[in-house]
Amino acid sequence: MEETLHAIRSGQVDALVVEGNDGPQIYTLQGLDAETNRFRGAILDQVNDAVIAVNHENCIIYLNSAAERLYGVTISKALGQTLPQIYNCRWGHEDDEAAAMTALLERGEWRGENVHIRRDGIEINAESSITVLRDVSGQSTGILSVIRDVTERKCSENKVLVSEIRYRRLFETAHDGVLLLNPATREIIDANPFMTEMLGYSHRQLVGKELFEIGLLKDEAASQEMVRKLSRTNQVRYDDLPLKGTGGQLHEVEVVANLYDEGGLPVIQCNVRDITARKRSEEQVRLLMAEVNHRAKNLLAVVLAVAQQTAKYGDLPSYVKRLSDRIDGLAAGQDLLVRNLWQGVEVSDLVKAQLAHFEDLIGTRILMHGPCVQLTAAAAQGVGMALHELATNASKYGALSNFEGQVHISWRVTAAAKPGFSMSWTESGGPRVVEPVRKGFGQVIIGRMAEASVLGTAEIRFHEEGLSWTLNAAAENVLTGRNQNESAQGDA
């Protein structure tokens, strides 16, 4: 198209000769003083751009071979038809068509782009240059259009545009910091919003700085070394870098720098990921695993002690049964602790767990009374074992061994300068109680072991009407922090 228009405008082509029904007609172009006729339709047939001429009635009076191919028509069928019978135009904006007509009237020419829709529905992105045709007397007789099909180019441009929009959207909305650097100067040339927000800098403040100036690298030498490594490997990774924002907030970050080509120019892209939360989570998991390991060892030590002490009493079958029951009691307490993330156990929940075999008696023959407070993990383990042992003893020899006996379980927190915790188990209505001659391991559990778990004292009394057990300790040794000053008493 450029060559054709250049020839027309530079004087190499003076006029258009069109063969019509009345013989050859000569049309000059506005602004040209035609002296010779050197422009023939045969020459126009050799150009790659479509050339179409229409008269003042908008009827086609000439089109070249390129126009035939572009619009899917033949000269014989096209001559005499109006342009809308060959194609329709779709303009980018509603006022573009009016602007084109104004340009033709005022300047005699217009150049621009629009979409031509062929009669078969095929759309063509057209780049057109339209010039007014005049006869030898200078009167306007029509227009000459030189049209180039730029559909392929527009598709490529649209793909690039979509790609750029997509990249910019990712760049702007990424939940990682992104910095673009000039490898020659090592200076930041762009930064995404996440990066500016994390550091507390504005975009203008970041642009022009090197990485060490915003705290990502140690010094200028480290910045130079990064660029040298990138020239050899195209990627450099840094793990666990400390990064302090303008407000003093410390972040743990990992940085991945890549060297790539952008339109023929090298660019460094640094992806900066804030791993502060991840590092905190990893540290929490590490501490939790250490705590689990510690608690597991303690539990194994308790199981070993229970096994050794249980073995001292009774024959093998009774040993297996008692050991199994006591481990079940330990497991019930562990389940509650795990369910509560080792943060403590409600007393009422612990009682119900250890007396699960008597669930149907709770509220009738087993009565509970006390405030809503939480035991620490250590206290829950010791108190749980004691409750399990008391329940086992009551079912064999005490208040739960008949159909009339009752067990009253109560706990309270005393309001004092140094709050205390007290828990009691009182039986009544069972068989007549006689203090045992031999002290078994059960008494060790409800006695010394319970005392050790709360750093308190346990009292066991064998009243004729039923056994009673009381445990006393400082609240700070038994209850979790939020319950230590609890003094309200209520039903569980």
CATH topology of the largest domain: Heat Shock Protein 90
Q: What is the CATH architecture assignment of the largest domain?
A: 2-Layer Sandwich
Give the rounded overall mean pLDDT. Answer: 81
Contiguous helical run count: 15
Oligomer class = single chain
Structural class: alpha+beta
Strand element count: 20
Describe the sheet with the most strands: 8 strands, antiparallel
Number of domains: 3
What brief labels describe this structure?
five-stranded antiparallel β-sheet, disordered C terminus, Heat Shock Protein 90, Beta-Lactamase, single chain, eight-stranded antiparallel β-sheet, 492 residues, 29% strand, alpha+beta, 3 domains, elongated, 15 helices
Tell me about this structure.
With 492 residues, the protein is of the alpha+beta class. The chain folds into three domains: 2-150, PAS domain (Beta-Lactamase); 174-274, 2-Layer Sandwich (Beta-Lactamase), CATH 3.30.450; 311-483, Histidine kinase-like ATPase, C-terminal domain (Heat Shock Protein 90, 2-Layer Sandwich). Helices cover 38% and strands 29% of the residues. The strands form four sheets. Strands 1, 2, 3, 4, 5, 6, 7 and 8 form an eight-stranded antiparallel sheet that branches. It is elongated and about 140 Å long. The two termini are 94 Å apart.
